[in-house]
Design goal:
- The complex is a heterotrimer of chains A (162), B (758) and C (290).
- By secondary structure, chain A is of the alpha+beta class.
- In chain A, 31% of the residues lie in helices and 15% in strands.
- Chain A contains five helices and five strands; from the N terminus they run ββαβββαααα.
- In chain A, helix 2 packs across helix 5.
- Chain A is globular and about 50 Å long.
- In chain C, strand 13 and strand 14 form a beta hairpin.
- With 290 residues, chain C is α+β, with helices and mostly antiparallel strands.
- Classes of the chains: A alpha+beta (162), B alpha+beta (758), C alpha+beta (290).
- Chains A and B meet through helix 2, helix 3 and helix 5 of A and helix 1 and helix 16 of B.
């Protein structure tokens, strides 16, 4: 009944054998062991599980893991390069764009995906970029300011996330 | 030039790098060797007797290790108002009766979540449904079903606050208003649901990782329920994904995990589903509010009377506090010479209502500020002027109740008046409404009956000059780890990066009552300051001896420099003094202790913060839909310790408080919550969030560390009231029951049109 | 929790249809799964076999068809949203997609999946109805077509027969001087429609004369519906404010909405009354430019 799943997570190839009903978020958290990606609901509404799949932001709780076969997945653990945080991570730190931090991985992934697709979004587009992610702590505006500063070039010329 | 080196600076949250890299570990992420997963079976009935529970089939399912029911507990009841045993009425795992849809009746531990869930379906519970009651106005009637035996008219608790003589005062008023309101419930919707990993060892000791606002409360309540010594239980608050008032009482995840683990001597992890989070954890207290307000024609408020009936739900929980505080804050932030409040909390067969950010004050502020605007219109007085005329001022005594030391309300009113003026002429169907508030910095009344100081801290300086700060305070995202580290660094005279904080672990941190009632900055801040001062004093003893300074000079430490305060260029390195001090103490690290319990500060709180908020709305008169355009807040919270933190708290509060006024609701049918999912429970998202502006007023609170007082909770009070007042300003209709939905606005607009035609 | 199932990932349409034919009602089709997985996680749907057509690339396309559009069933919402072909008369499709759920959902969810889920508050159906679109379905027995407005039979129920797969959405080229507009009412911007209204209007000769009109409502009945009586009021006539009001009122009585936690039936009718005239006006303005 189990099927093979071959995918790359943060550049690292994995060769797994899973039950077909396994969700991508379960592969990432429980099998690969990257617990940065969170789960906050059962109705695909909160966005805490957001990751990048082939460059697109998706809710990993709503992707059948087998559909990520041969795909490249990036999680929050893949944003920093060694000990160098990504521009968005630095901006989040400077702006205090997080409080309890539970939604933060999802927010970072949504923002990263947004800027990968469109390096110069308007404020409205930034808001739209994180509209699929709920935050109960910050009121969103600090996150929008953080992304805006990255777009402005305050953290160096923005390069696409690999 | 700021007189502070650390306080007031914009810093990264000390937990920041963990949070932005996904390496912060929450209880949600805890995985232990040999760990089992638990699930809870809950009552589908709002009120029923439990006749029989057959767990045999569930136990036989492969992968199930244990199934427990109320019979596997000591049959004790708990409640957070420990001082009053009659208010400790919740078994958690019910033995004979269930009192709301969601009341736990059994729990399973299995090798994985799916097996545990499957096992729940195999537990056979025989119920005898009983008549149930859902509305407090019905439950308070003679013939209503009794939620708890022996509780007359289902009145769980009542509270009375009074000063002056309202009846006499009303006689003297030129104008009196009587208004009725209904305040809704609200769900906390923490991003991390309630969860716990309980691990009993064969030595009979319990270790628990849990998402909590107070590891000390959980430790003590578990000890009560399990008949254990408190100190044989270690509760650790990991990074916690939000609390907002939902996580400082003993909950079903914690208790059931503990019972299961006790049986098996294996770690058991229980994570509540989002649906359980909505239906079976505690929520904001819905209230029926009756207000009578009397004034002289010049706008002097003479008397206010408030009568409140609250929907208690099935158990007491923190409902008694919400009942009291709503009555107390109904007198805020104005000087009423005569005041009377009577509140009744009524048991109902619904999910328990308890503590949620604001604690009864968002309700009292919504109703009070709405009525005040109505009074202003009746009297023909500008709403800001009316507030100015009656607003609290520094060093005011709420007769017999509380003493307000610092108070920046009037400066806030000025700032908001200015802001509204600057906004100028508004487009059609736009309106700006205001609301004022005042809120507490932690509570004084020891309903928990703790023998410990309300807050304590230990500071330890190591040989390399780095400082370890141990505090029971729990960081739930509000940033207390950072704020307390900043206070410690400032007091000791070192840098923020020199501090390493250990918090929320009852095994190594001294007790603290936890993160609720907006108490950490003031109360734990004071404890931390005292502990740091203790260490500093010890260091300065050695410095004084080493430097041989004349007796007329004082020594201080700033930015790692131990120096004469009058001649700062004369000094030695902090690091050198540390080494010498440790040598001088026979090789012991320098330890300092601090604690704080408010004394002689009245009955409510040691200090209060104030603010005024202006909300601008744009209404579509054909549909009733309105947009939150802008929310500008002038507020004061004494000395601002952590500016980045406060801004975040304020904007976040607007999201939550705005939601309370705008879209959040828990409609029920026969005790069943109809929207227990984030898809159906409407929350403000980034596209819905208004522009926010913060106008900081400078004040200084003598009772607080470096003059600081509360900031995170008071800001949840005004928004619903400001929205209500804004809609009235925009289109001339007033909605007295929350939330203010477009449907209600449209209905009111149509009625207004009809009346105008007549 | 999701119950175990056997998973098949066909690479071609033929493979998919063969599997559907083999497993009949023991199987369910998944594309993006943005609706299906919610139901499966809650245990409401538990098929023995899951036919995963996400990888059937021959069903993912947006093609020009002599001025019309052909959209493959497994085309994602995001692809439609971002497609340069969604301009002029088809801009309304991109506008509709922009307000559909969140970017994450649109990146993986498909238009075919949305239509087959048949949630009456779905956004695509009313817009496609207004655009006079038809749907193509295939099975091992052959192909057939039907107008979008006939596809959904009831809440979450479609006209798809066992063994059949939705393959394509066909949108005819809009006639000259046609404008289409869509709006949905909700309290939270990206939320499902409390009521959705799509209007397509074709101008005739004369000033503001309506030659043809299609009014589609979402979340106002068990399925997306056409407000034909409201259309009849406008067809062939010169659009005036009074006529707009009348159209709105009639559409509001034609609708068959429910009362639920989002809104009462009464309020939904009020919304239809207000939004139908608004969208007619908007469509009219677009028709003039077309």
């Amino acid at each position: 009944m189990k099927k093979e799943l071959k995918l790359k997570v943060n550049g690292q190839p994995y060769d797994l054998y899973i039950k077909p009903k396994t969700l991508l978020v379960e592969v990432l958290r429980d099998i690969v062991g990257l617990t940065g990606t969170k789960r906050g609901c059962n109705s695909s509404s909160c966005g805490a599980c957001t990751v990048m799949l082939n460059g697109m932001s998706v809710k990993s709780c709503s992707v059948l893991a087998l559909q990520a076969n041969a795909a490249e997945v990036v999680t929050v653990e893949g944003l920093a390069k060694g000990n160098e945080l990504s521009p968005l991570q630095k901006a989040f730190l400077d702006h205090g764009a997080y409080q309890c931090g539970f939604c933060t991985p999802g927010m970072l992934m949504s923002s990263t995906a947004l800027l990968a697709e469109n390096p110069k979004p308007t404020k409205e587009q930034i808001k739209e970029g994180i509209d699929g992610n709920i935050c109960r702590c910050t009121g969103y505006n600090s996150i929008i300011r953080a992304v805006t500063d990255v777009v402005k070039g305050e953290y160096g010329e923005y390069k696409e996330a690999k | 030039m700021s007189k502070y080196s650390v306080i007031g600076t914009r810093v990264h949250n000390v937990d920041g790098t963990e949070k932005v890299t996904g390496s912060a570990r929450y209880t949600f992420d805890v995985v232990l060797p040999n760990m089992l997963y638990g699930k809870i079976l809950r009552s589908p009935h709002p009120h029923a007797k439990i006749l029989k529970i057959d767990t045999r089939q569930a136990k036989r399912l492969i992968g199930v290790k244990a199934v427990v029911t109320g019979k596997d507990t000591l049959g004790r009841k708990q409640g957070i108002w420990r001082r009053f045993p009659e208010l400790c009425d919740e078994e958690i795992l019910c033995r004979k009766k269930v009192r709301y849809i969601g009341d736990p009746v059994a729990a399973v531990a299995a090798i994985d979540e799916d097996t545990a869930e499957e096992a729940l379906d195999l537990i056979d519970v025989e119920y005898e449904p009983l008549p149930a009651v859902f509305d407090p106005l019905e439950a308070i009637k003679e013939d209503a079903p009794q939620v708890h035996d022996g509780v007359e008219l289902n009145i769980n608790i009542n509270r009375h606050i009074e000063w002056g003589d309202v009846d006499e005062a009303f006689e003297k008023c030129d104008h009196i208003r009587e208004d009725q309101f209904k305040c809704s419930s609200q769900a906390h919707v923490c991003m991390e649901t309630h969860d716990a990993v309980a691990s009993f060892g064969h030595n009979g000791k319990l270790t628990m990782w849990t998402s909590t606002q107070s590891s000390y409360y959980i430790q003590r309540l578990l000890a009560d329920m399990l008949d254990m010594k408190e100190s044989d239980i270690r509760v650790m608050n990991r990074h916690t994904g939000g609390g907002f008032g939902s996580k400082f009482e003993l909950d079903s995840a914690q208790f059931c995990a503990a019972i299961l683990s006790q049986k098996l001597c294996q770690p058991v992890k229980i994570v509540l589903s989002r649906e359980e989070e909505f239906t079976a954890t505690k929520r904001r207290t819905p209230m029926y509010y009756f207000l009578k307000l009397g004034a002289k024609k010049d706008g002097t408020l003479l008397a206010k009377e408030a009568r409140v009936i609250t929907e208690g739900g099935a158990y007491t929980a923190m409902g008694a506090t919400a009942l009291y505080l709503t009555g107390f804050f109904s007198s805020f932030p104005y000087k009423y010479p005569n005041y009377r409040y009577d509140g009744y909390r009524v048991y109902t067969n619904t999910a328990v209502t308890s503590a949620m950010r604001g604690f009864g004050a968002p309700q009292s502020t919504f109703v009070g500020e709405s009525q005040l605007d109505m009074m202003a219109e009746d009297l023909g007085i500008d709403p800001i002027e009316l507030r100015r005329k009656n607003g609290m001022t520094p060093n005011y005594e709420v007769p017999g109740q509380a003493f307000i030391q610092s108070c920046g309300l009037h400066q806030c009113l000025d700032k908001i008046e200015q802001h509204i003026k600057e906004r100028g002429k508004l487009p059609p169907n736009h309106g700006i409404g205001i609301a004022s508030y005042g809120f507490m910095s932690g509570g004084i009344f020891n309903w928990f009956n703790t023998p410990y100081a309300f807050s304590s801290a230990i500071v330890r300086i190591n040989i390399d000059g780095k400082v370890d700060l141990f505090t029971g305070a729990c960081d739930i995202g509000q940033g207390s780890n950072t704020t307390l580290s900043m206070i410690c660094a400032e007091e000791l005279g070192v840098r923020l990066e020199d501090i390493r904080i250990f918090s929320g672990d009852t095994g190594i941190c001294p007790p603290d009552l936890g993160a609720w009632g907006s108490r950490e900055t003031l109360m734990n801040g004071n404890a931390v300051k005292m502990a740091a001062a203790d260490c500093k004093r010890q260091l300065l003893e050695f410095a004084g001896a080493k430097m041989g300074v004349n007796i007329v000079y004082d020594l201080d430490i700033k930015d790692r420099w131990v120096h004469l305060t009058d001649r700062p260029e004369r000094g030695v390195s902090y690091f050198d003094i540390v080494k010498e001090a440790i040598r001088g103490k026979d090789g012991e690290a320098i330890m300092g202790r601090g604690h704080y319990t408010p004394h002689r500060k009245g009955m409510i709180s040691p200090a209060y913060s104030f603010g005024v908020q202006a909300a601008e709305v744009a209404v579509d008169t054909e549909t009733g839909r309105y947009k939150l355009v802008d929310v500008t807040t002038a507020h004061e919270s004494g000395t601002v310790i952590n500016p980045v933190g406060i801004e975040g708290q304020l904007e976040g509060a607007i999201m939550m408080a705005g939601g309370y006024g705008f879209c959040e609701d828990q409609p029920m049918d026969e005790g069943k919550i109809l929207n227990p999912s984030i898809a159906d429970y409407k929350l403000i998202r980034s596209l819905d969030m208004p522009e926010t502006k913060i106008l900081e007023i400078d004040t200084y609170e003598p009772e607080g560390p470096f003059g600081a007082k509360e900031a995170g909770e008071g800001l949840t009070n005004p928004t619903a009231g400001a929205i209500g007042n804004a809609i009235y300003k925009a289109v001339g209709v007033r909605i007295n029951d929350l939330p203010i939905t477009p449907e209600k606005v449209l209905k009111a607009l149509k009625e207004k049109k009809k009346k105008a035609k007549k | 929790m999701i119950k175990d199932f056997e998973h098949f990932a066909p690479k071609t349409l033929k493979e998919a249809l063969t599997l559907l034919d083999k497993y009949q009602d023991d199987c369910k089709v998944i594309a993006g799964g943005q609706s299906l997985l919610i139901l499966m996680r809650q245990g409401l749907v538990a098929p023995k076999y899951l036919i995963d057509i996400k990888g059937v690339s021959e069903l993912s396309y947006i093609k020009d068809d002599k001025g019309g559009l052909k959209i493959g069933a497994t085309t994602t919402h995001r692809a439609i949203e971002k497609s340069p072909m969604m301009r002029d008369g088809f801009a309304v499709l991109a506008e509709m997609e922009t307000r559909l759920a969140s970017i994450q959902t649109r990146n993986w969810g498909t238009i075919g999946g949305n239509l087959c889920h048949a949630d009456p508050s779905g956004d695509p159906a009313p817009v496609l109805i207004a655009l006079n679109a038809t749907l193509k379905m295939a099975s091992l027995k052959g192909e057939r077509s039907m107008p979008v407005e006939d596809f959904s039979l009831d809440y979450f129920e479609t006209a798809l027969e066992l063994g059949e797969l939705l393959t394509e959405i066909v949108i005819p080229p809009p006639p000259p001087h046609t404008g289409t507009a869509y709006t949905k009412f909700n309290i939270i911007e990206s939320d499902l429609a409390t009521v959705g209204v799509a209007v397509s209007i074709t101008l005739g000769t004369g000033d503001n004369v309506c030659q043809d009109v299609r009014i589609a409502l979402g979340a106002a009945a068990p399925t997306a519906m056409r407000a034909k009586k409201a259309e009849a009021v406008l067809k062939g006539k010169k659009i005036t404010d009074a006529l707009l009001k009348q159209a709105g009122e009639i559409a509001s009585t034609e609708a068959d909405p429910i009362s639920d936690i989002a809104a009462s039936e009464e309020y939904r009718r009020e919304l239809a009354k207000v939004l139908v005239p608004r969208m007619i006006k908007e469509a009219l303005a677009r028709a003039k430019k077309a």
